[in-house]
Design brief:
Strands 3-2-1-4-5-7-6 form a seven-stranded mixed beta sheet. With 273 residues, the chain is an alpha/beta fold. The protein starts with 23 loop residues before the first helix and ends in a 6-residue tail after the last helix. It has helices at residues 24-38, 42-45, 50-58, 79-86, 99-112, 142-145, 148-155, 180-188, 247-250, 258-267, and strands at 67-71, 91-96, 117-121, 133-139, 158-169, 208-216, 221-228.
């Protein structure tokens, strides 16, 4: 067993992307406080979006023996689906900054006896893994998608060419604009920095090639996928702190392309505008 070490339309940059960098620490504190309140009943709230989770994981096209990172894994609802696809020879990593959410992921893994699942307690801005992963799952990770520092560290956990799949919430198209107050309210209940919902993918999309995008939930959500380009792999230097009683410990097992990417993003403007 491996001992863990404690990573359609493609839019041009939107107005949101030009705003100043978020106050990551304040946002992280807000998020931790909110998920502390939600943790006990969080799984029950995810039933309606289960098929979106499945479709997003399918978009990763995982193969047996691969390594995959579940970004902000929460209570670990995706761990079994990911492990099923990478098999016993693969490895599933997950991290979350909420201790209350992560405790459930730890229990889920320990109860199942998974030797090849490693979960860590870490901020996205500090995450580092003992090996590069082949794929990254961003399932409803809005705050991370809005933070350049978080994206640098998370994407730095992956090899060049790694597959990325994203699911999340967004504003309805403009012809359903009156409903967007409700979308903001839903987002506010969970995220440390609600807002940026017009094109919440616009900070990760320019880092990816082969971009694919599908609206979900009548336009209130989306699934997107792509492949990490070499130019956007920035290696993190700070190790992640292992979670207290982490499941990985309990189980004893965790020519620049930037120019073309920007030009490609500019050529295919977002249909959400």
């Amino acid at each position: 067993m491996t001992m863990p070490v404690p990573s359609s339309p493609k839019p041009a940059a939107s107005a949101d992307a030009s705003l100043p960098a978020p106050d990551d620490e304040r946002i992280r504190r807000n998020s931790i406080d909110k998920y502390r309140r939600h943790a006990a009943h969080y799984d029950a709230t995810c039933r309606r979006t289960w098929t979106i989770r499945q479709r997003t994981i399918e978009a990763l096209a995982l193969k047996p023996g691969e390594r995959v990172l579940d970004v902000a894994c929460g209570t670990g609802l995706s761990l079994a689906l990911l492990r099923e696809r990478v098999g016993d020879r693969g490895h599933v990593y997950g991290f979350d900054h909420s201790g209350e959410m992560l405790a459930q992921a730890q229990h889920r893994s320990a109860d199942a006896g998974w030797h090849n699942v490693t979960v860590l307690q870490s901020a996205a801005q500090e995450i580092a893994l003992p090996e590069s992963v082949d794929a990254l799952l961003f399932h409803y990770t809005h705050d991370i998608l809005r933070s350049a520092a978080a994206l640098d560290h998370v994407l730095g956990c992956a090899r060049p060419g790694a597959r990325v799949a994203i699911a999340g919430i967004k504003y309805f198209p403009r012809w359903l604009e009156p409903l967007n107050a409700w979308v903001y309210y839903k987002n506010f209940g969970y995220n440390g920095a609600p807002g940026g919902l017009r094109t919440p993918w616009d900070r990760i999309a320019p880092r990816l090639a082969d971009w694919r995008f599908t609206p979900t939930q009548f336009g209130m959500g989306y699934i997107a996928s792509g492949r990490l380009t070499d130019a956007h792999v920035a290696r993190p230097t700070r190790p992640a702190r292992p979670a207290l009683h982490a499941a990985s410990v309990a189980n004893a097992a965790p020519g620049s392309e930037a120019g073309p990417a920007r030009a490609h993003a500019a050529r295919i403007a977002s249909i959400e505008q």
